[in-house]
UniProtKB/TrEMBL annotation, chain A:
UniProt protein name: Iron complex transport system permease protein
Annotated CDD domains: TM_ABC_iron-siderophores_like
Homology family: Belongs to the binding-protein-dependent transport system permease family. FecCD subfamily.
Example GO molecular function: transmembrane transporter activity
InterPro entries, per database record: ABC_BtuC-like (IPR037294), ABC_transptr_permease_BtuC (IPR000522)
Transmembrane intervals: 21-42, 75-95, 107-129, 141-165, 177-199, 219-239, 266-287, 334-355
Location in the cell: Cell membrane
Pfam families (UniProt xref): FecCD
Automatic annotation (TrEMBL), chain B:
Keyword set, alphabetical order: ATP-binding, Nucleotide-binding, Translocase, Transport
A GO molecular-function annotation: ATP hydrolysis activity
Protein known as: Iron complex transport system ATP-binding protein
Keyword Ribosomal protein applies: no
CDD domains xref list: ABC_Iron-Siderophores_B12_Hemin
ABC transporter domain sequence ranges: 7-248
PANTHER family: HEMIN IMPORT ATP-BINDING PROTEIN HMUV
Length: 366, 369
């Protein structure tokens, strides 16, 4: 009798845990919808909610100013923010688990630096002279141009990640790998600096705009960004089981029947896709990739990737939309660099989680 | 019907391969077998090759030459999932995962049985709770790993290994971080696991004493990489323990089955009186201080255990003086000071320290005195 009692109690606990997780995921989904809508409504010109919905459902003439603002500017921007934020958060999660390092993230291991080297080569060496800003330049290239920049960023980011991982096979210590990632970052950054030094000021301005980070991209870029991210997110969700096994470390995971090298290659490719494509179009957006996974672990109080992958997707998307909203300073025509907004908003949150999170959530660990 | 060994090796050489050099061979010509129902302890001094053998047997390191069979099939013919269903391991390295409950860790052991998402079926859930119960950790199931003590963590990791439903459970120093009661508890759990039909447990361990009390069989490496296998008692009688571990100042006591630190010999003491327990512990203390014990009274020093109105008293007697002590500690302290005469004893400790200092620093001065 005691046993059955215990079992029913266990079931209750499990059920409550499941209920709680579902509730949080649902709340995050609502937050995502809310921020997405707000991102469309707020801006230099505030468009009332009813009008926004009328535009979205096609009830407003195409040449109406609000239609142009929403359909050509804000909707692609909001989509880029939502998918970009989700991509960076999940990429960070994958890296933290693979390296078993709480400080890992797309930016810290030099992946973004690799991407920026690729982009710098394309923009600074081969970019059109007449274009003065990145969107203009991309439009000058047309669809092919966007694809070229994306490819350059992707190749740059995967190259750095491959080197880091190749070296990490021979090194046990995670701290060493982290330092190596930083060193590769320095090398690529110094190459970028050399390129900048010998480039035309216009091209440099286009490139430095890219480095500030922005979700202000056009449909041509969104049409590449969104499908790639959706695909990579699906693949990362398919890898939740090996990711969970990796929490115990490479040796345990292997002993339980996981093919480590194959899983690692998958994780590299997915991360390079996610981080690479976002960095290509939106620039190196700091902070989201490192912080969101920690926030998620704290909120859901779990390390289970079956919860963390969707959790990071929703939370990353919401936070990116929120940051984008702030960056556009509603009611004014000014915009702030996106990366500075994400860091300024996010760092205090993480500090709060570290210091005042609940007992399990306290401290940052993978 | 002849039983098939769960692990067997033929002419196995273990060691490390190098890129351009001859491999470093740790041990060679190993022909060992692990039978179902056995608890085998692998012991040997540090650096003798325990970890290398364990890592080779579980396929984490390739062997130099020879064959390893797992449940009658060549180890290299297994794919990763098949192997994980036959063999599970518990490693020395501490896991460092937080935000994960004990039951989540154990559930990971179902890895080779679950589908792509790792969702547990009813059978998997049963196996998880069975594993936790089998190691006596069912009450830990909903606790977070970061809150567990080392001993509790180790139990959870053993439960995780058990959840793989293996025929062979291999553990690399499962008792390394634990205090004595927890060491014994873990060994008791492992012993009970090895009694499950068709299962065997192999572990490496540092603690010789515990190994000899629990193991059905001992695999022993000596410091030259020679390998011995047998029941603990057989190995004691063969005298291989002594040769495996012996070094300066330590020797193996065949009668007691433990290693003894050999102190410098100071003399013989005759010990008389006292009840049985008092006698045993007094003689332990005297042996520790370097004195042999005998029961005749023809020695320089005699110690008599007396009962003084309910208090135990140790009476020290030699040719020059007599002393009463009311604890073994005081008596040993007195003996270690080279039983100075009673005048010395009455001097203040400051004076004694001064004397010691003088002796050490100014030996020639002292001699001229």
């Amino acid at each position: 009798m005691k046993k059955t009692e215990k079992r029913s109690l266990n079931k209750q606990i499990q059920f409550n845990g499941l209920q709680r997780t579902t509730l949080i995921l649902f709340t995050l989904l609502i937050a995502l919808c809310l921020f997405f809508t707000l991102d469309l409504v707020l801006g230099s010109v505030n468009i009332p909610l009813e009008e926004t919905f009328s535009v979205l459902f096609g009830n407003i003439p195409l040449n109406d100013p609000s239609n142009i603002i929403i359909m050509d500017l804000r909707l692609p921007r909001a989509l880029a923010a939502a998918f970009g934020g989700a991509a960076l958060a999940v990429a960070g999660l994958l890296m933290q688990t693979l390296f078993r390092n709480p400080l890992a993230g797309p930016f810290i291991l030099g992946i973004s630096s690799g991407a920026s080297l690729g982009v710098a080569i394309v923009i600074l060496l081969f970019g059109g002279v007449s274009a003065t800003t990145l969107p203009q330049m991309l439009r000058a290239f047309g669809f092919l141009g966007s694809a070229t920049v994306a490819m350059a960023a992707f190749i740059g980011s995967s190259a750095v990640l491959m080197i880091v991982l190749f070296v990490s096979r021979k090194i046990e210590s995670n701290v060493t790998i982290l330092i190596l990632g930083l060193m590769f970052g320095y090398i690529t950054n110094s190459l970028v600096t050399i390129l900048i030094h010998f480039s035309d000021p216009e091209k440099v301005k286009a490139f430095s705009e890219w480095t500030f980070g922005t979700f202000d991209i056009r449909w041509a870029e969104v049409s590449i960004l969104v499908p790639v991210i959706i695909l990579a997110l699906i693949f990362s969700f398919l890898l939740t089981k090996p990711l969970n096994a990796l929490l115990l470390g490479e040796e345990y995971a292997t002993s339980m029947g996981m093919n480590f090298n194959r899983t690692r290659s998958y994780l590299i490719v997915i991360t390079a896709l996610l981080a690479g494509v976002v960095t290509a179009f939106c620039g190196p957006i700091t902070f989201l990739g490192v912080a969101v996974p920690h926030l998620c672990r704290g909120i859901f109080v779990t390390a289970d990737h079956r919860i963390l992958v969707p959790g990071c997707t929703l939370l990353g998307a919401s936070l990116a939309l929120f940051a984008d909203m702030i960056a556009h300073l509603p009611g004014s025509s000014l915009t702030l660099p996106l990366s500075s907004v994400t860091s300024m908003l996010g760092a205090p949150v993480i500090i709060w989680v570290i210091l005042y999170g609940n007992k399990i959530g306290r401290g940052v660990s993978v | 019907m002849k039983e098939v060994p769960l692990i067997s090796t033929s002419e196995l050489s273990i060691g490390y391969k190098h890129r351009n050099k001859e491999p470093t061979i740790v041990s060679k010509n190993l022909n060992l077998s692990l039978m179902p129902g056995e608890l085998v302890c692998l012991i040997g001094p540090n650096g003798a090759g325990k970890s290398t053998l364990i890592r080779t047997l579980i396929g984490m390191q390739s062997c130099i030459s020879g064959d390893i069979h797992l449940a009658g099939k060549l180890l290299n013919d297994f794919n990763a999932i098949e192997k994980a269903r036959v063999l599970s391991v518990v490693l020395t390295s501490q896991i460092s995962v937080s935000h994960f409950k004990a039951s989540d860790i154990v559930a990971l052991g179902r890895y080779p049985y679950t589908g792509w998402s790792g969702t547990l079926s009813e059978k998997d859930k049963e196996m998880v709770s069975y594993s936790l119960t089998a190691v006596g950790a069912s009450e830990l199931s909903s606790r977070y790993v970061s809150e567990l003590s080392d001993g509790e963590k180790q139990k959870v990791m053993i439960a995780r290994g058990l959840a793989q439903d293996p025929s062979v459970l291999v553990l690399d120093e499962p008792t390394a971080f634990l205090d004595l009661p927890h060491k014994i508890e873990i060994m008791r759990i492992l012993k009970s696991l090895s009694r499950h039909p068709g299962r065997a447990v192999l572990l490496s361990i540092h603690d010789l004493d515990i190994a000899m009390r629990t193991a059905d069989k001992i695999w022993l490496f000596n410091k030259h990489g020679d390998f011995y296998s047998g029941a603990p008692e057989d190995l004691i009688l063969k005298g291989v323990f002594g040769s495996a571990f012996e070094m300066g100042g330590v020797h193996f006591d065949k009668k007691k089955g433990t290693f003894i630190i050999s102190p410098e010999k100071k003399g013989t003491v005759s010990l008389i009186g006292g009840n049985n327990t008092e006698f045993i512990w007094t003689s332990h203390a005297l042996e520790r201080a370097g004195y042999n014990i005998c029961t005749d009274t023809n020695t320089d020093i005699t110690i008599e255990i007396q009962d003084r109105k309910g208090d135990t008293c140790w009476q020290y007697m030699d040719n020059t003086c007599e002393h009463d002590f009311f604890s073994i500690g005081d008596m040993i302290q007195f003996l270690c000071k080279g039983h100075k005469n009673s005048v010395d004893q009455q001097r203040s400790s400051d004076e004694l320290m001064y004397l010691e200092f003088g002796k050490r620093t100014f030996p020639e001065v002292q001699r001229t005195w």
